[in-house]
Amino acid sequence: MNFDSGSFRDRSARVFASGEQIYRALSTEAYTNWQQVSNQPFFRQRSLNGQIVGTEELSPIERQKFSLPGSVAAVLKHERIPFISYPYEWSFTMLKHAALVHLEILADAVSSGLILKDASPYNVQFRGSHAVFIDLGSFAPMVPGEPWLAYRQFCELMLFPLLLQAYRGVDFQTILRSQLEGISAHQFIQWMRWIDLFRPGVFTNGWLQAALEKKTQATPTSTVRDLQSSGFNSQLIERMLKNLKRIVERLKWVPRITQWTSYNDALSHVADDGPAKSEFVHQVCQSKHRRLVWDLGCNDGRYSKIASRQASTVVAMDQDHACVDRLFNTSLESQSNILPLCIDLANMSPAQGWRGHERKRLEDRGRPDLVICLGIIHHMVLAANIPLPDVVDWLASLGGELILEFPSKQDAMVRALLRNKHDQYEDYSLEHLEFELQKHFRILQRQSLPSGERTLLHGVPYHSV
Amino acid sequence: MNFLLAYFDPTAGSLLLQALVGGFGGIVVVGRYLWMQLRGHEQVQAILSQSREIPISTQLQSR
What we know:
The structure holds two protein chains of two kinds.
Chain A: E1 13-18, E2 21-26, H1 28-38, H2 41-48, E3 55-57, H3 60-63, E4 74-78, H4 92-111, E5 114-116, E6 124-127, E7 130-133, E8 139-141, H5 151-168, H6 173-178, H7 185-191, H8 202-215, H9 223-229, H10 234-250, H11 268-286, E9 290-296, H12 302-308, E10 311-318, H13 321-334, E11 338-342, E12 370-373, H14 377-383, H15 388-397, E13 401-407, H16 412-418, H17 430-437, E14 441-448, E15 454-461
Parallel strand pairs in A: 9-10, 9-12, 10-11, 12-13
Antiparallel strand pairs in A: 1-2, 2-4, 3-4, 5-8, 6-7, 13-15, 14-15
Helix pairs in contact in A: 4-5, 4-10, 7-8, 11-12
Chain B: H1 12-20, H2 23-50
């Protein structure tokens, strides 16, 4: 049994996987905390409505099948989250939901005499469009007179990225991807204009925090102990949580209009080919139930929605933040099984953190049974300059079936991509694509679309024919 | 006194801020905190001022 390489920070409640199941090994202290929190009405209620990950305690006999260190006092079995995602792949509204779930659960915990030891968005995952709190090891009894130690972490990993996006339109994903600890208060205020100091959350949580950090750097005594002695109490935490919740709830991000947000039926090739593409995707998807489907370049998610009817989970990826946020908002209304993520296919999420083991690369978090790759290959080959055989090789490495749309060089979008470029893409042709595909896939179906310049292909890997 | 220690540094600034934004009750806490800091500083100064240098004859001083 090996502990999950990303769960080393809190040694008292480490995660491990066995088969398809996820478990958490608790130390004696963490087990006492678990017994306390699992009996709280708020915990039971939020577990029932799916806001806290479904969990059961293993009996001593069930535990025996694992060779665990002697320090492990108990083992919990968690509901499996269909696809693990990270904050640097989420849209604004997704991070906002994660922050609100955190604050709501923490507020309940505080009124029950408990606290959350940390405030990391990595402790929240998405079951489709539903935010789920997964880190049960974070609950601990509140120590009277002690402040919320994770407040700074909440600001750096959730509040500041949200404020940056809402007030300054700075996409937080790239920052959170390179700075796994988040955005410091000092760094945050560098992005703010003086006028932003009057906007909710900036002055106190940003400017004042940065100033206090600077002033108190050399404090020789324990501030926790000194505040305890000065009469700090849990009502102050409750008041602060209310303020933070109000700030986060009111945050809105209005994305600028991009060519992708207005990618709709008004475009001739979408209007001409859309119904035939939908029918093709529908036919392939309805043939059997699939556990995991990836929709690459999902845009408004119309094909993700078709696939989601016959799949447990659809991960809908697009590099356009506005598209992903819009899809998440529409998925919210229907509580769908679609997980939208901000992914640049030419630069996907890598393995990161300590020794590259802490955060997994995208492909290592679940292999798709089916990959939908519509209207994207020309962008990868002609705009991102990735050689066509490489693109096909990568698609094949995912191990699933493939639905792929190929627009020829006469297609209007392809011509637009090439209008100002030297055409060095001699291998960009349907014949060459099929040649490359047939190294890995048996092509079961091909269909020309009404526009006459686009072809759909359905390939199945040879190993699963 | 009991402590719940985090596995990351919460920083003194972020802890103090929680009292500062807590309305009147928080201001009272900050006032007491500052008073304690001041007293602590005075006590340190007092100890330092009571300490004396031990005279060492110039012959014993190493160069």
